[in-house]
Amino acid sequence: MSNIIESATIDDIALYLQREDGIDVKASYQQAQSVIDGFNDMANKGIIKGWYFNDQGHLELLPSDNALRIIANQK
Predict the structure, then answer these.
(1) pLDDT value at residue 36
(2) pTM (two decimals)
């Protein structure tokens, strides 16, 4: 999928995991890579188009237009 918005880098996610979960640097990067891999998988399936940290510091996903249509049709 093109045009992935990647405002939260592996470094950002690793630092977040270190701060929130109290894990060491090596483990935080391993877990952050796993998170990014999952996001890329969802993006490749057309579920999301990106991810970012919101104003409260929480990781948010940007749903794809197709995912938003599916959600809207289920209401």
Answers:
(1) 96
(2) 0.81
